[in-house]
Amino acid sequence: MSQPPSSPEKPRIDASDREHILTEAARLFRENGYERTTVRQIADACGLLPGSLHYRYPAKEAILLDMMRVAIGQTIRAIIDATAPVTDPLQKLRAAMQAHIQALLSGNDMFYVLLFEWRSLSGEARDAMIAERDRYERYWAIMLDTLKVQGYIRPEVDLHMLRLIGLGALNWVATWYQEDGRYTAEQIGDMVWTVLTRGALVGAQHDQAGRI
């Protein structure tokens, strides 16, 4: 039997160094793009010699992968914190959507890099990133499965497609949202919620969704 691909080696780094390096690297990746950002630029921004950065992260790709692991982990924690006290499955989905939007629009550059630079990874690093993404999407799959089993979602709705469209709509907000712009994060969440629930829920659930 073939073995699953091994996960790339975790960085040798303590928590404070990790946060500092990932924060500075995320800023540079967002400003310059991953490909155009050099290891020396990251080291300079962190106040480190290139060799010291290399000890902590053996390659630039290792920084990007670790950054994405952290961003996904933070998003999962935000979803769990938002949904843990909620028992109604429809309200739980609404809370998860708003938590996802708030995380994306928090101003943390790591979330932007997560969305738009993950294709820069290759080989085992890319496989590891996809595994992390799938771990996050399983939370959404469980919530949608629960809603369908309990009769909230119309039987003919494809849950896999619904999840892809829903997360795609939420993630794309990061490309056009402006903190001082026309719409607040709450208004954006309300609009996405209305569009998705009107299309996916059985008619009897529309009124309940509109009150959430």
Structural account:
The chain has 212 residues and is mostly helical. It contains ten helices and no strands. The model is unreliable at 1-6 (pLDDT under 50).
Global structural class: mainly alpha
What is the element string, with H for helices and E for strands? HHHHHHHHHH
β content, as a range? under 5%
Rounded average pLDDT: 89
Number of strands: 0
Low-confidence stretches: 1-6
Q: Can you count the helices?
A: 10
Rough outline: elongated
Quote the distance from N terminus to C terminus: 49 Å
Largest beta-sheet details: none
List its salient traits.
single chain, about 210 residues, mainly alpha, 10 helices, about 70% helix, disordered N terminus
Topology:
Elements: H1 15-32, H2 39-46, H3 50-56, H4 60-83, H5 89-104, H6 109-117, H7 123-149, H8 159-176, H9 185-200, H10 206-211
Helix pairs in contact: 1-2, 1-4, 1-6, 2-3, 4-5, 4-6, 4-7, 5-7, 5-8, 5-9, 8-9
Summarize the structure.
With 212 residues, the chain is mainly alpha-helical. 70% of the residues lie in helices and 0% in strands. It is built from 10 helices and no strands.
